[in-house]
Design brief:
Three copies of one chain form a homotrimer. Chain A is of the alpha+beta class. The first copy, chain A, is 29% helix and 23% strand. Chain A is built from five helices and seven strands; from the N terminus they run αααββαβββββα. In chain A, strands 1, 2, 3, 4, 5, 6 and 7 form a seven-stranded mixed beta sheet that branches. The longest helix of chain A has 33 residues. Chain A is globular. The interface between B and C is large, with 37 and 46 residues.
Chain lengths: 264, 264, 264
């Protein structure tokens, strides 16, 4: 429902300029209209930039600096681990799961950011980006797809208010034909999340269509993909079904070495 | 010839703002000049965005929504299959070659879009983008390079008027050192094209330089690469030469498994 | 010190618009302010575009056209080979190391450009971009990370004034779990550099954090990574320590086949 509301707001926002141009305007009104359009372009740049800055920090495990990019009440949801609430928890998650600040020998964690589709709300205070990361890490290849939200503070600075990055695929560096791995789940590693995952889903060879924050740019139609529960992780805890579901995508030796160096 | 005309028009377009700034201007003329520059920035954003939207639709086989991004009389030319004419044929091609709308189990078709070089015509109605896709699919790695065209309709909406994506390389997920495959050709799979390929070319380990829609941004010189016939597919149909040319790049078992899952 | 000065200048530049909006302004002053903001957006586009244009030229060995993108007194530093001084040396380096202009059979040299973080100086004459290339070449995978500088000439055209691209990782196409290679060093191949490397560093499985030209966009804090000597190449020439350091990352047969086709 939230996404439908965003899409409707974006439609209204994109319709406004055309209507405004029909009316005769004073010089001041024209200046204000140009100012608003420039501000929108600057804001689009700012949130795209923020996402790229985030990526360069992940590369080198700069967790404290990374956490400073978030709003005080931001949410973080990466992979299938569940929701972490607030900037302090963002930092706690990174430190607990990936170690202290700073790059390390034998670690590769490149999170290369691209293909951003950015939007700004009509009031200029909220932003959204659909984008990708292409991960080359110790564990192998990873393909997160982000649908993130951003907020412009009273200080005029944009911050990440929601980072949401389900994975499309996770494989060892040997290629997705040999090893296609499950993504993380809530009890995979420390720390535990504040809330369970907002969506349970599977990665390749299964699939999940992450909802789009924007309508089709030509038709204006909102695209509503799968709304039900998706994937093998949605099983009652402690049941044989859940145990079985966790086998999917494991390596031949039964391990699922996410964030571990490849074995040869 | 068309590309040279585009490049000359782009040179003229980029020279205009500098000249205009030399003359004293009324407030209204200044406002109009700023408006035009903002509109150009917005249009550049719009066509880059359209290309990214296209990529996210390919990922999940959203063929109907994808076809709606095209103009009524658009042309489509992917790989070496030839030209498909019109929006309806774009949809027919996708449905016939890749199946019905919707993501599927065991299918990976990520077409990740980046490195766009966008230009807008002086009249603001035509756009061009040179860009790339980095493909991770069932078949393996693919590197299309696009030189696409876009049109702004009377409704103010940009659409794709020409999608043209020759491949630079096509290999299995095992790497281009082991398998470098030919791209598609007209009779490789259904449906047949409306027109034969505009250019015949080969992929790695051969090469083809896709003509540039823009001049060198520093010298203004137009870059004119290979103009002749390029590659092994340019052979008289039905001849031994043509039959031999289709062997290039095949796997050891004689197959050329584009769009097939890797065998192990 | 230079980078700290740049970061301080960028902070001052980003603070200016907010202050300026507090004062009442004449129509002409408002027009000038809007003009300056549009010019900045255009300049950001221009230097990002220049970097993408560079990438497409590398792909196809268009060395003469590539060298024309540089200022007369530009510097070039790729990998660990040292500094090349001036546009003529940029061209000499490319021709000596990689052969004459033009794509070649059996050569793949794709340098795909993305994740640009661009900034423009307050006087509008200097620009900086942090960005990446994702290399798929004969030799395998490569991950350069650029911190480049650009200058706007009196003719209004942007050119590359410093190209600096240390590698993060270099492996064969078989994957970084099997082969992680050292990068180039000054005496690896012809021609010799005009000056030794500005920084000595190692690639994966070691690491090096390339200094950031911009402060943290939220806190404004300048990030100062490793300032000391980094990596195994920093050894006194002719010593056993230097000889040993060059073993790091070699293949099992003792070779380090950068820019050579993979052996199978």
């Amino acid at each position: 429902m939230i996404r439908l509301a965003i899409a409707a707001a974006l439609l209204a926002a994109s319709a406004t300029p055309a209507l405004a141009q029909d009316a005769p305007q004073s010089t001041d009104a024209k200046l204000d209209a140009l100012d608003a359009r420039i501000t929108r372009l600057e804001d689009l740049n700012a949130i795209e930039r923020l996402q790229k800055v985030y990526g360069y920090f992940v590369d080198k495990s700069q967790w404290t600096q990374l956490s400073e990019l978030f709003t005080e009440d931001a949410t973080l949801e990466i992979g299938g681990k569940g929701l972490f609430l607030g900037r302090a928890q963002v930092l706690n998650y990174m430190h607990s799961a990936f170690g202290p600040d700073g790059a390390k020998e034998n670690v590769l964690a490149n999170h290369m950011q691209f293909q951003p589709i950015a939007d700004i709300s009509t009031d200029g205070r909220h932003g959204w980006v659909r984008s990708r990361a292409f991960v080359m890490s110790n564990g192998g290849w990873g393909l997160p797809l982000y649908e993130n939200a951003y907020e412009k503070g009273d200080d005029g600075i944009w911050r990440i208010s929601r980072l949401s990055g389900p994975f499309t695929m996770y494989t060892s560096w040997e290629g997705w034909g040999k090893n296609a791995l499950n993504n993380t789940w809530p009890d995979k590693f420390e720390p535990p999340p504040d809330l369970p995952p907002s969506t349970v889903y599977l990665t390749y060879p299964a699939y999940y269509i992450i909802p789009f924050h924007y309508p089709n740019p030509v038709t204006g139609h909102v695209f509503a993909p799968d709304t039900g529960q998706v994937g093998a992780y949605f099983r009652p805890p402690g049941t044989p079904e859940q145990a079985q579901s966790l086998q999917v995508g494991r390596l031949a030796d039964g391990t699922q070495p996410i964030a571990e160096p490849p074995k040869d």
